[in-house]
Write a structure and sequence with these properties.
This protein has four helices and 30 strands. By secondary structure, it is mostly beta strands.
């Protein structure tokens, strides 16, 4: 849509910066005031009215000798296109290689004199490979090369069990828990498939109980590899405190899938405080005499418990 801006005031004119938009009938109007102006009055007075051209591209890389350019950025969404990239016309199946870019204006057809008429706005035209036509930048979609590697499948049934997302190395397996985008609900993957239908986004789709999503939108949730003594999940790379149940020695390890957890020999906790509490509650540290002296002293149950705990810490050299 053409639009003009007032760059110099004249008698009874609007204020500087006044914007007019061209209507289908050929006249110009201002959206805020509703005022209408004739096309001749606006288009034939360059001293007062200047056409405002809003281009939706930025040329990034050019060849100063040939006068051509190799890379362009679409400003509306920040997508960058470069000669050699794979791309396609939006909503149309088939992909092409970008051969070159041109700056052109859209043609409306011929006027009464037989001359071609144009809209006056510079746009980027993309030429595909030889004899394959081209398309306007504004309605072109960049084709991303395959971003997955199938890791495990059944050759007979054709079922996929595990796939790797190459862009970040994330692995998705049937049974994994995922979120769709950052704030979605947690779902369990029930099926993995490759889609090639022209009306649906190509690539890996993950199906779950209430729907499906493209793998690019999936965020894998950390999978627990063990439970602590008090029933809390242990995830890879967590710092885990353990207590040897025989000698009550305590220390920490870093959890990985290959680390063996043996609950018969050790009790595991996510904090050192919880590990020390286990030692206090389970390692013999007080004589019967000391126990009865504290439990029969005056005061409520809470006070007696704190006294017992402090005495146990002292006996066990736990700070």
């Amino acid at each position: 849509m053409k639009k003009y801006k007032l760059i110099k005031e004249y008698p009874a004119s609007p204020k500087l910066g006044f914007i007019l938009f061209k209507r289908h009938c050929g006249t110009y109007h201002n959206i805020e005031t509703g005022n209408v102006y004739g096309s001749r009055m606006i288009e034939n007075q360059p001293e007062f009215w200047e056409e405002v051209v809003e281009k939706d591209y930025e040329i990034l890389k050019t060849c100063p000798i040939e006068g051509t350019f190799y890379s362009v950025k679409r400003l509306s969404d920040g997508e960058i296109f470069t000669v050699g990239d794979k791309a396609k016309t939006v909503d149309i199946n088939g992909r092409h290689s970008i051969r070159q870019f041109k700056i052109k204006q859209k043609c409306f057809g011929k006027n009464f004199s037989g001359n071609y008429t144009y809209d006056g706005i510079d746009r980027i035209w993309i030429d595909w490979e030889e004899n394959c036509g081209g398309n306007w930048l504004e309605s072109t979609e960049k084709v991303v090369e395959k971003d997955y590697q199938i890791l495990k499948s059944c050759p007979i049934e054709g079922t996929i069990y595990s796939v790797e997302r190459l862009s970040d190395g994330e692995v998705f397996t049937v049974g994994d828990k995922i979120k769709v985008y950052q704030h979605g609900s947690i779902h369990t993957i029930t099926e993995i498939s490759v889609n090639t239908h022209p009306l649906v986004k190509e690539g890996i789709w993950l199906r779950y109980d209430s729907g499906s999503c493209h793998m690019t939108h999936a965020i894998k949730q950390k999978q627990p590899i063990y439970l602590t003594h008090d029933g809390k999940d242990i995830f890879p790379k967590d710092i885990v405190w353990y207590v040897n149940k025989e000698n009550f020695y305590h220390d920490y390890i870093k959890a990985y899938p290959e680390v063996k957890f043996n609950s018969e020999i050790r009790a595991y906790f996510l904090t050192e405080e919880e590990a020390k509490k286990y030692i206090i509650e389970n390692k013999p540290a007080l004589s019967i005499k000391e126990f009865w002296e504290i439990t029969t002293m005056s005061g409520n149950y809470r006070v007696k418990s704190l006294v017992l705990e402090e005495l146990a810490k002292k006996r066990l050299n736990l700070k």
